[in-house]
């Protein structure tokens, strides 16, 4: 293909499409947005797999380094040089404890604070407005988050942060824990993703509405 | 002939149960084409709207299902003066300076001149969004994005001019839907006509259903060729007469007048759909019809506008669990209790309304398992079905997804009996097609009268026909530039790689803004109507 086929660009293109559909005439088209979300899901899965593989490689590298450093413990002069790559690996490792592609975002490394996020949704059929509040300080609730009917409010896409890649990554994480019907049965990944998502919810509490 | 005067009555906004009356008068239908003036205008190509009357090489009367002809024998002819034409081309929106040639029959009389654009571009409102022949093939209806419906009528044969048989002329034009605003949801409702379906003719008037995203309307198109004359209290101009001048009474008499075609909205079926209506289908019992949106199918009675029955509802309890939507639904052509609906996941469900009031459980489920070798980011998009059509004999179903057309036997659910590749060369371009939104285009597909040939559209104004018996296929182009007088439509070919031959066109030179989404086939004869953006092409086959 002649265009950028990598997952990241597809993700940003898809998000822009969803964003633009809000202002299109005739209202949000459910079918088109559903298809775009499928592309988003596929791209995200590929992106996660790539990141996972990369982290796995880094972990293996780290193990190798540990072995090397043990061997070279007798040599104090080289220990200094090893520390830097080890530190880097440690950072990666910590980030990988909450894996999924959010390692770069500064918010991702923040400890999850006791933020309360409220989301409201308007059901188009019954015209019922429902408000959900969830606290992420409770780790148990985190695992249920995916299963809860967490609906989101459509909003501030006009904010300039939207184009920031970091926030797009955040958005993906949030989006990933929604539309749960679209996610494949990767239970572990899902749990981990949701933890990650909630960790960054403080910075980005709103995302795409599911009508 | 007299220049037609347009009367447009602005009725009240659509409220439940109220009927809005719109009257449009057009010049005498059937005589329009003969008033074409300048052949020079036509030949120079300066005009945008060229009416080309068809020619019948034989003079025999049309008869129901003629034997299928070779699909490569499509003849397109251009009329020069009183020449021998074979096809018709109707274009939307000519330039103002050309209005003098074609203003009499073009459906833009009600547009103020300031909005008429030049011939090289067109407004979005003129993009044709649906085409449909009626059940006899006498009438052809088109709907556009501006909410207008234009109906063409086939000219009757005349013994004096046999070569003019079968030409389609504008019969009626009316504004079917207007843009609306839903204040509750802060949504604008587009006036674009999504589908038109004809009702079989039961009396002198014609009836059709037209729908936009939210409202279905039943329109009655009738002719008026007599008017009462000789009123007592008012004179011919409508002025009230002075009662003192009235000395005798007379009975008004019906006098013939120039034929006027009126369109009136007889029923308005509204407020039943939360999501966008994508299709309507009239039942073979001629009393009911279904309207389908993304998540629901509603059953209506043609007489009752304030009530509809929901027969399919796939909305999940939690919208986050939504995985598929309904993309199209159609009634079986003979069995009034059976209908089918297609989904965005590439499956078709056949339902029997006798089993339960809510037809959520299907009788038959048609799906072909996905080939894992062709998996890509866009697999879900290209497997979404954009159109489903029953064959005329009711034994087969045809579905169109982005790259293929599939024919299913109703008795076999696990795979289609035939699969035709429409433009497989696009498989490698899916990414850029996704970026420019072309991958979301919804192509339609259509059977011919005898179910032996199927047709569907593509890009670059190409359309494809597949002969199911001979397994031959042809790619044709709907364009004015490539046609010469008395020319046969030349088969086109897209070159996929390697050396490009002289007449072939490479995949990269395809114009993706020129797409043929809507086509229709005459129920008995080999006449097709093809909508290319704002142009309507009508082709007939050549009779040897």
UniProtKB/TrEMBL annotation, chain A:
Belongs to the IER family. Pfam families: IER (PF05760). InterPro entries: IER. The lineage of its organism: Eukaryota, Metazoa, Chordata, Craniata, Vertebrata. It comes from Oryzias latipes (Japanese rice fish). This is Immediate early response 5 like.
TrEMBL record, chain B:
Keywords: Repeat, WD repeat. Residues 1-20 are annotated as: Disordered. SMART domains: WD40. Pfam families: WD40 (PF00400). One of its GO terms (molecular function) is protein phosphatase regulator activity. PROSITE patterns: PR55_1, PR55_2. One of its GO terms (cellular component) is protein phosphatase type 2A complex. Belongs to the phosphatase 2A regulatory subunit B family. PP2A consists of a common heterodimeric core enzyme, composed of a 36 kDa catalytic subunit (subunit C) and a 65 kDa constant regulatory subunit (PR65 or subunit A), that associates with a variety of regulatory subunits. This is Serine/threonine-protein phosphatase 2A 55 kDa regulatory subunit B. It comes from Oryzias latipes.
């Amino acid at each position: 293909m002649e265009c950028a086929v990598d997952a990241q660009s597809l993700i940003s293109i898809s998000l822009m499409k969803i964003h633009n559909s809000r202002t299109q005439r005739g209202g949000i088209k459910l079918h088109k947005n559903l298809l775009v979300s499928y592309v988003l899901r596929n791209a995200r899965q590929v992106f996660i797999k790539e990141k996972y593989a990369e982290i796995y490689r880094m972990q293996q590298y780290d193990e190798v380094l540990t072995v090397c450093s043990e061997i070279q413990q007798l040599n104090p002069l080289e220990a200094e040089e090893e520390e830097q790559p080890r530190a880097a690996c440690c950072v990666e490792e910590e980030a990988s404890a909450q894996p999924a592609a959010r390692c770069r975002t500064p918010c991702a490394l923040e400890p999850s604070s006791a933020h309360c996020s409220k989301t409201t949704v308007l059901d188009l059929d019954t015209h019922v407005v429902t408000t959900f509040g969830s606290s992420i300080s409770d780790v148990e609730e985190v695992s249920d988050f995916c299963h809860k009917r967490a609906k989101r409010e459509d909003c501030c896409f006009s904010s300039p942060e939207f184009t920031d890649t970091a926030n797009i990554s955040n958005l993906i994480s949030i989006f990933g824990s929604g539309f749960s019907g679209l996610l494949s049965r990767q239970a572990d990944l899902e749990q981990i993703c949701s933890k990650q998502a909630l960790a960054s919810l403080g910075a980005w509490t709103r995302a795409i509405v599911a009508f | 002939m007299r220049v037609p005067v347009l009367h447009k009555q602005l009725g009240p906004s659509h409220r439940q149960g109220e009927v809005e009356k719109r009257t449009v008068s057009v010049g005498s239908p059937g005589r329009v084409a003969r008033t074409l003036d300048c052949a020079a205008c036509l030949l120079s190509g300066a005009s945008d709207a060229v009416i080309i009357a068809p020619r019948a090489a034989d003079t025999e009367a049309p008869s129901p299902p003629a034997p299928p002809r070779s699909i490569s024998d499509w003849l397109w002819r251009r009329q020069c003066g009183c020449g021998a034409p074979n096809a018709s081309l109707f274009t939307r929106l000519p330039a103002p300076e050309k209005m003098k040639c074609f203003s009499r029959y073009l459906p833009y009389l009600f547009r103020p001149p300031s909005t008429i654009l030049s011939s090289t571009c067109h407004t979005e409102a003129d993009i044709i969004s649906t085409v449909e022949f009626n059940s006899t093939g006498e009438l052809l209806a088109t709907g556009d994005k501006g909410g207008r419906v234009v109906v063409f009528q086939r000219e009757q044969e005349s013994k004096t001019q046999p070569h003019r048989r079968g030409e389609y002329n504008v019969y009626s034009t009316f504004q079917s839907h207007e843009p609306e605003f839903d204040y509750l949801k802060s949504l604008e409702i587009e006036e674009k006509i999504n589908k038109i379906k004809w009702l079989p003719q039961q009396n002198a008037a014609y009836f059709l259903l037209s729908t936009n995203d939210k409202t279905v309307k039943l329109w009655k198109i009738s002719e008026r060729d007599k008017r009462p004359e000789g009123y007592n209290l008012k004179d011919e101009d409508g002025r009230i007469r002075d009662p003192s001048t009235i000395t005798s009474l007379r009975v008004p008499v019906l006098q013939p007048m120039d034929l006027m075609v009126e369109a009136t909205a007889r029923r308005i079926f509204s407020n039943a759909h939360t999501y966008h209506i994508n299709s309507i289908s009239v039942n073979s019992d001629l009393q009911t019809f279904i309207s389908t949106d993304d998540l629901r199918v509603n059953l209506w009675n043609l007489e009752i506008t304030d009530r509809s029955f929901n027969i399919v509802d796939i909305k999940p309890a939690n919208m986050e669990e939504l995985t598929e939507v309904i993309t199209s639904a159609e009634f079986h052509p003979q069995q009034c209790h059976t209908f089918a609906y297609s989904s965005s996941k590439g499956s078709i469900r056949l339902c029997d309304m006798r089993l339960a009031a809510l037809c959520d459980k299907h009788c038959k489920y048609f799906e072909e398992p996905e080939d894992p070798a062709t998996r890509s980011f866009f697999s879900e998009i290209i497997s979404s079905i954009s159109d489903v059509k029953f064959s005329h004999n009711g034994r087969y179903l045809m579905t169109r997804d982005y790259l293929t057309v599939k024919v299913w036997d109703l008795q076999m659910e696990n795979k289609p009996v035939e699969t035709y590749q429409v433009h497989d060369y696009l498989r490698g371009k899916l990414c850029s097609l996704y970026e420019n939104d072309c991958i979301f285009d919804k192509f339609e597909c259509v059977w011919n009268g005898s179910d032996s040939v199927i047709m569907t559209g593509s890009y670059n104004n190409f359309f494809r026909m597949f002969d199911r018996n001979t397994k031959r296929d042809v790619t044709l182009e709907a364009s004015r530039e490539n046609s010469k007088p008395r020319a046969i439509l030349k088969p086109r070919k897209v070159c996929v790689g390697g050396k490009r031959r002289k007449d072939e066109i490479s995949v990269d030179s395809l114009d993706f803004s020129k797409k043929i989404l809507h086509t229709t086939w005459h129920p008995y004869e080999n006449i097709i109507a093809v909508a290319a953006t704002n142009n309507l092409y009508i082709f007939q086959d050549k009779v040897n």
